[in-house]
Amino acid sequence: DDDIFSSAFCENSEKLIDVHLFALAAKYYSLSNLGVCTPLEDVLEALKGDSEGATGIKPDEFMNSKKSHEVQVMSELVNDIANYCGIKQVIDIGSGKGYLSSFLSMQYNLKVYGIDSSSSNTDGAHERNRKLKKHWRAYQSRGKENLKSQSLEKANDKPVESEINCKTINEELLNNANSLQNQGQAIIQDLLPSCGFTEMATLETNTEGEADLMTGTQSHETKLSEEVLAILDVLPADAVEDFSSSHNCVELCEEEKVRRKITSLQTKARKSSESNLYFPLTSCITAETELNDIITDLEDCMMVGLHTCGDLAANTLRIFTAKPEIKAVCSVGCCYHLLSEQFENQEECHDQIWGFPMCQYLKDKGWCCGRNARMSACLALERVAVGQMLPTESLFYRAVLQVIIEEIYGVAKSDRHVGKTFSKSSSFVDYVRRSLKKLELDDSKLPDSCIMDYYEKYKHRMNELEAFNMLKVVLAPCIEVLILLDRLCYLKEQENIAWSGLVKLFDPVKSPRCYAVIALKNSSC
């Protein structure tokens, strides 16, 4: 109840007098408590229907645990949306090092354009994608060895007629290869000779009847086919380069040789026309960006963004609503403190496009958060709740530094940043001197004794600073709610949107900015 929560503050002084009630109010207005989010499970079920999800591998071998978690969850959702909309092209805005882009292309065979404003990120994405292909080939090799060992174990348990077994299984796998070729899955030719056939050819025959032998062979062949297909599901042909292997199997018939030759030629032809399904591009994206100027073969597609920074998240939604080719969007924003606000300053800029507010409802009210509130929205309550406390000492250093800069140098605001100076400093004096150099301020007129005097003057207020920051952490989800609901309301105001919603994608302890804004356009748009 609003009246109850308002009593957390003194009516006259407006000071906080009931911290417990303040915390309850903050929880009450958090996104998880408001009931406006759509569960991820419901979204996936609606998108997939009765179809089975693709067998996948976890990317944790080549990403840290946080990024692996984000890419694994978001890529599955993006693939389901793409399938639902019948599209194969994805545009990853603010793609950075290309973690999501490369995984979408290799795991789900989607054609992905990753756009980032930093050329160093784009160059790094190219190099990383090259290395990632090697990982995929290594995974393929391990899959071959696993199939080989499994088939050996089964063969040792129950010896069968070698020639009939090898011929039957080879024929069935070749049929599978022809079927998969139509889907661009040509790498089965590399898997065929490594399924244990060489070892099986040397086994002794037994006295089973012909009917029993064929029944057992068909069961074994079916199991092997399923295992081969499971590997193929996670290793698209375009994701790996062809490599030759020595064939120690029984001599191949002429028909099989021809089939393999055709398969190999088709694979090479396809790769020559499209050597990579992931294309990193360098460009600065704004609300007015014309995608056709960046992507020459733009077609019906969806737009995604994993932790798009500041105004980029808002501009992603604006581009989505404006461009008819973009049929869906899935955007996870971050860095709220970098958002531009229309009503933060009194200066009128009629032609500027702002990051906040987006929806007409908040525009009409002239709503403003302010930078301090947006900074607070970036804090991670869930991490603090499990014991990952705020860096109180570094925050204290930063606060005292600001006092020194204002009182000694008369500087209230600077475009320069201190950055991660605290972790490199051996003491408060060292921290101040390093920081002043970064800010291009002369530290020669500031003796060590003067620096330490400031430290001693405010040291007793460190606990006070910690308490204040804890209150900011508690309030953080409420401010994030306002920003996310503004984006959702903007989509609800558009006439060409069939469905839009907020979905919690990630574990907030692993990835605090865990909410995605998702929307699908009307089929007629």
From TrEMBL:
Any Pfam family hit: Methyltransf_32
Descriptive protein name: MET25 protein
InterPro entries per the UniProt record, alphabetical: Methyltranfer_dom (IPR025714), METTL25 (IPR052220), SAM-dependent_MTases_sf (IPR029063)
Species in which this protein is naturally found: Rhabdornis inornatus
Residue span, Methyltransferase domain: 66-342
UniProt xrefs under PANTHER family: CGI-41 METHYLTRANSFERASE, METHYLTRANSFERASE-LIKE PROTEIN 25-RELATED
